[in-house]
Each structure stands twice: as C-alpha cells, then as structure tokens.
Amino acid sequence: MVRSSAAGVLLAALVLLLAVGGHAAAQPLGWWTFDANQVKGVTVVDRAGNHDGSIQGEIRLTQGPFAALALDGEANSVDVPNVQAADLPARELSIEAWVSLDAGLAWGGIAGYFQDNGSFEKGWLLGYDETHFSFAVSASGRLTYLKGATPFQEGQWYHVAGTYDGQAMKLYVNGKLEATATNQRGDIDYPPTALLTIGAYRDDNEFYRAQGRIQEVVLHGRVLEPAEIESRFAATETQIPRPLAFRVPPCARFIAPDAVVVAWETDEPCESIVEYGLEEKWDRQARDAALKTSHRITLAGLEPKARCQYRIRANQPGRPASISEVFELDNALNYTVARVPDLPSPYASDERGQRCRQAAQEILSATRITRGYCLVLGCHDGQLAYELVRRSDLIVVGVDNDCNRIERARAALGKAAAYGSRITLHHAAAADRLPFPQSFANLIVAEDGIVSGELPATASQVIPLLQPAGGVACLGPLRAASSADAKGRVEDWLGKTKAHWDFVETSLGGWVVARRELPPGTGAWTHQYGDAGNSANGQEDLQGVTSTDRLEVQWLGRPGGDFGLDRNPRMPAPLAIHGRLFHQGMNRIAALDSYNGAVLWSLEIPALRRVNMPRDAGNWCADPHHLYVAIKDRCWVISAQTGEVIRTLSLADAGLRATHEWGYVAQAGKFLYGSSVRKGAPYTDFWGGKSWYDATSGAGTEKVCSDDLFALAGTSGELKWRYRGGVILNTTIAVAGGKVLFVECRHPEVKTLATSRIGSPQLWEDQFLVALDAATGRKLWEQPLDTVDGIVVFYLLAAADRVFIASSEAGQYHLYAFSAADGNSLWHTAHDWIRNNHGGHMQHPVLVGNAVYLEPCGYDAATGKLLTKNVGRHGGCATYAATTSALIYRGEAGRISMWDVASEKVTGWYNLRPSCWLSTVPANGMVLSPEGGGGCSCGNWLETSIGFAPAPSSAAK
Question: Which of 22, 403, 764, 952 has its CA 20 to 30 A from that of 653?
C-alpha cells in the first residue's frame, strides 16, 4: 500500500511538472496514424478523441518499419466527417504530418479545412505545389501561402509542420524552420462550411488527390515550439530506412514469362536484397549475401499479366539499412516467349529421332539464331520444330505439302503442349505458294532434308523469305561424294539468287549456311532526327516508293498502347538499324525485329524517361551492335542483340557526378559524343496540359543546355577530348562531315545560372556558331550569331557542306544557312506558321537531296530559293521524317501520311496515327511505326505497332 501511494504521488508530481514546465502532456485535437493497429476497415481511428477518419477509395497499407496509407492520386483520400470550425483551433494551431510524395501538384493538399474559391479564401491548409511544401492560413485577410525552401524528392519521407499563433505563420520541413510570415493576425477565419480532408486539396470547387504515402497527421490546439518540432522529427526519423543511393540505378530484364533479372550498382559493397510482391505486400525476397558493388538478382514466380513492385535494400556492415524507392514491374508487358513444358517427348528415340535432335543443336550452334521466327520447310512430323523450340526462344512456323502429315504433327505437338504459342504448322501445296511475306524469317531450315540429304525447293523461293539483316538459312546435311561435290550442288541450287553462303562440316554432314544480301538503298534511323547531323532523313529509299498505297502490311502487333507513356509529351523517336527497331515507352525499352515484329527483348528502367524533344536532345542513339542510352549521370551501352547492359560510361568530368547528368548523346565513326547538364534539367513531367509542351512561350519552352561537350573512344569510355566554353543549346548539337557543330551562349549571366533548363532572354545574346574537329575537339572556326530568338524552338541541322538553323517565334519560322567550311552566312528566309498550336509552330526541318523543307515550304539548300509552298500539311501534334524522295508525317485527319517530293501528291493510312512528335520512321527498307498514339481521344485509332514494306509488285524499278 505504501509503495502504491508513493507511486501515485510521483505520477501526479510528474504530470504537474509537465503541465507547468512545458506542453509535452497536452493532448492533440486530432491524431491519425495509418498502420494496421489504427486502420479498421475504412476507418482510421482518431487516437486523440472522437473524430475518426473515413478512407475513400482502395485501402492499401504499406508494409515494413514505417507503415503508411498508399495514395494513388485518383481515388484515395481521407475524410474526417462531422468536424465544424468550433472543433478546430481558434487561434493557436499546429498541424504536422509524415508524408512521401510521388508527384507534385499545382494545388496539393496534405491536410486542411479551407475554401479557396476566387476571392473567397478562408481556413488553413498544410500542402505542397509541384516542387515544395506549403502552409496556408487566413485570419485577417485572404489565405497567405508559405512556401518551403527545400524541394521535395519524389519517394522520400518528410516531416512537414505548420504553426500559427495569431501573429506569425511558420513552416518547418524535417525539423527546420523554412518560411515565416506575419501578415495574418488574430483568430483564424474559418469558412461557414468545409470538410477536414487528409491526402487531398479539397474545397467546394477543387478536389486534387495526392499521389504517394501518408504515415501520420497530428492536429494541435497550441503552437509547437521549434525545439519540440525538431525533437519530434528526430524521434521518428530513426525508424525510416535511409534512402539507397545508386551508382547505377536499377534495370529489369524479363527472361521468362514468370521471371526477371534486376541489376544495379552501388558505390560501396553490400548485400544484394530485393523485396517484391503484389500491392504493397512485400511477401517475397531474393537475396545474395555476398558483398559487392555490381548486383544482379533474379525474381522468380511473377504472377501472369500482373503488376508487381520491388524495392532494393542494402545492408552494409556497421551501418543502418538503406532502402530504395518503390519500383514497378508490369508482367503484362513481359514479351518473352512461352516455355515448352517439361513433358515426355511425343517422338520416338529411334535413329531418325536422334538425328532430328542432333540437327537442332547443330543448326543453333552454326547460326546462333535463337530468337525471332523460324520457318521449317517440309516439316514432316514436326520433330525438328519441337527440338528447336525446346532449345531456343524461337517461334516456329512449319509448312508441308501433305495434309495428313500436318494433322499428325499437330496432334503430336499437342500432346507435348508445344503447339500454338510456339509452333504452328500450315499446309502449302508448293514452295512458291507459301502464306508468308518476304523477308520475315530469321532462320530457315528443312526437316525433310535431314533425312533425304537434299536441298529444298529452289533458292529463288527460299532466300527472299529471309530477313535481310542477319537472317540465315541452314540447310542440310547434304549427301555428297565430297566437299567439292557438295559445294557444286550449292552453287547450282543458288543459280542467280544473290546470297552469301558458307559450308559448315559437322558430325551429321555438311550444312549450307546462307545469308541474304541487304538491298541497296536501305537506310537507318540511328538518332533522334535520323542521323547525328539531325537531318531527319536516314537515307532510306523504300525502293523508290513514295505513296502509302504502294506499301503493304508486313507485320502488326506488340507493343500496344499500354506499353507507352502517352502520345502528348513528345517522347524520343524510335531507332532502327541492322534489322532491329528500338522503341521507348513508360520507362521501358523494347527491341523488335523490323521485318517480322518479334519482340527480341525488353528492359524496364525506372530512371529512363525524357520528354519534350523539341527543347532537348534525344536520350539515345544506336549503331549496328549497340544501343547507347543516357540515364542519370551515365551512358548505358546495351547489346542490340540481347538487351544485356554491357557497361556504363561516366561523364567526362567525374567531379560533376554529384551535380550533373548525361545530356546529349550521339555515335559517329569511332566516337561516342556526350555532354553534361545540371541535374533535373531534362524534362520528365508528362501529366497535365502544360506537359503537352505546346506553348509558344513560358513554361515548357525553356531550352535544355549543356556545360560541356566531349568525345569518348567507342564503347571503352576512354576520353578523347572535352570542350568547355559557353552554354551549349542541346537542340543545336550535330555531328556531320567530320565536325561537331553547335550554338553556344557566352553571356555572363547565363553562364552563372544554377540550372541547365534556360528560358532567360539573355540566352539569345552573345551567341556563337562553333565547329570542332570531331576526332580531336580542336576548334576549327566560330562565328558570332544573331538570329531571331528561338523562343518556341531552335534547331540546327548539318550536312557535309551546309549548316542550317531554324528559329521559331512570333508567328514565323526563320531558316538560316551557313557554310560548313567556315561558318559564313549564306542565306536567310522566313515564312509564317500554319498555326500556333498542335505543333504548327515547332516543326523540325528536313533535308532531302538538295532541298530543305520546313512546313509548308521547301527551299534550295544552296541558294535559299523557294521551291514549293505545298509541303503536306500536318494535321496534328507531330513532326516530319524523310525518305530519299518523300516526307512521312501526320497529315489530314491526323493520320500517318506520305508526301511525294516530286509530284507533291499526298496519300495516307486511315485510323493510324503517330505520337505527338516522332514515332514513325523509314528505315531497314520499311516504314516502321511502333505504337505511340495511346491516350488520344480525337479519333478511332488502331493502337498497335505496325511495319510496312514495299509491295513486291509495285516497288519502283
């Protein structure tokens, strides 16, 4: 009894001490914590009293040491009903929250009770805008919005607090005072009606929900002291894992329908740990305990067609754990081929069966073709097709002239669950009547030949079916008296058909390995505007075809609209070279076979995105063997064949890594060219009207500029030279004729700006046109430059002997020509825009032969003489690409169209549209249009990827 009495006295004394000496014992007016203990169904319990919250939309609580309510930006927020102004602080107010945002908003709310409708502004709000946190109060006037000093980083946790004491407003971020205002005085002026809302900006006229996570909101009827706010932040901060800093951010490559490899790099050695699952469950983990800086983990057992998430955890000896932001994987966009089940073979283990198994292995070894489409001629009982798909990622189509054999083969393959997605068989009465387009097959084999030792059909029937950039026919093994006899038979078989061929001896016999020649006039699209010179012309001649009615569908299919970002934000153009087509989507890349549409590989890269190409350089380029992609402060060198990241190359100045990113990227000759831009300069926003990037001035028209320019030796990363002078406009950098050309601004105020996204009027002062030797970086010449300010867009195109600059402002395009030899001015002309919206004021010029085209005019490249005013008019947000004799663009009614340079005739495809910048390119002997129009509501569009080839009967001779 004595002990209990003493304890009671001590407790009472402690309570009295706290009440007299500070506010620590004061009860909050509202306290909402979003974890499993406090969230009961749709209700979040008010730990301070009787004002429970009601969660709207889907309820998703994140798992882990810092549980929170996930907010999707569309349907999730929390209402606290039955709260009146009388229930809220009259004068002394503190509102604090732990929040992590995935995106900013012009009007963002964390917690508030207010109205902000025109001049009617009352109440209070803890919130944010596109970049900073904010706090607003109305007492003696309209709402005053305080803006914090710290830009929030998406995905990171912050403690945000606002206080008001009747005389001063204060905003704290992570325990530190960031803003103060004293223009509001007296009691808070509440609106007659409002709804206390958490996770959204909500009044009578607006309702904008937050996207991110919210862990806790606490409302106080008193003013928290600065030391108290700092201690509250510090006490909770220790529960939050440190954000994981990557040297190279993660990349995920699908390797099977249910598996993906995630790779990343860290600065310091640590374990490799990936947590993953569905909808914030984090119920699976993949781990490698070895300490390393280069990490590679396979995530298995992915749900079919489902989105999953993953995060990377780093455990370093003697340090707190670090954890990354949450990344998403959409397995519906996993284009790997279906696996053949491990079932008993339906084929006998006799001599013929053994011969087919060995032949499949020898074919794959001799050709190294493991992806794409394989054609099996004389497919007989289907065993060769079966053995090939078991050993590769090929999709096999077989033909035979015997209907009964086809039926038996289908039945056998059905027993092995191999028929359908990986193998299909067709009846064809003769080899010259096959139901396939020319140029479609990556591999052609013949099952009949394995037994008979004879070559199938004739070369003139087989070789044209081969994909012309790497396709292989592997036929045999031949029965011949000698190698010389076999080679003679091959030459007789080929006749006049053009092909490169080898004779490969194996244990089964001699194989003919034949490759088709690439047709002359085949072009490539290796950079944003065709080539490193920005000509918007990859020198594809399409066999002379200049109209859509002389092109036929070669293939159509994936990717579809779900792969992409949206048609609006003017994404980087696809690339196409050496038979491959590369396409960017929503933080992802897919590589397709240009001739048959097979998806060869795909990568999910959360840090990939770059948009607003009219004001920046593209973020990738390609050569026959590699893809070069600028991501954060590095350039990734990716195998064009497999999608493997071979290496990552650093900026020329390693000291810039903390402040700069890789900007411009181009490949020409033996060199890879790059530049450095300040972090955050490349455009990435894609949501909302301003992210259409269609304005004539202001936000979205600022030009991304570089602080240096450099050249590396190929893929090795060896620095060859680095140039530093003025501020270089990225849209003007070009490589052509052994020169690197660009426009730079040397205005002192521009050079000292803390950003590389520049809209300052001084950008158009003190400009120079500069030419460097592409191999050495030596300055060849420079000329002072004074053009019309390129407020809307400012482009440079270069050919061997000419340099062109296009500037757009105040209703007109201005086109300038200079000598590539010395930079002297040659001519200048101007003409009016077609319109001031939907891309009519920002078109990119095109070089075709001796002419330069800029809608609606064409000019003689040498003299500037007007050649035409009838360039095909664009019918929507997109720009032009050229063949050697036609322009491809978005024409009448918004459809993909062609304009014949000679006849000025326009043709088009109904119900096909490109993206809102450049997504349809002529290359690899085709017109390639990977899906880029998804999200458009202005027509009945076919949201599919498609490839067109010249019709065999109508290609120009």
Answer: 764
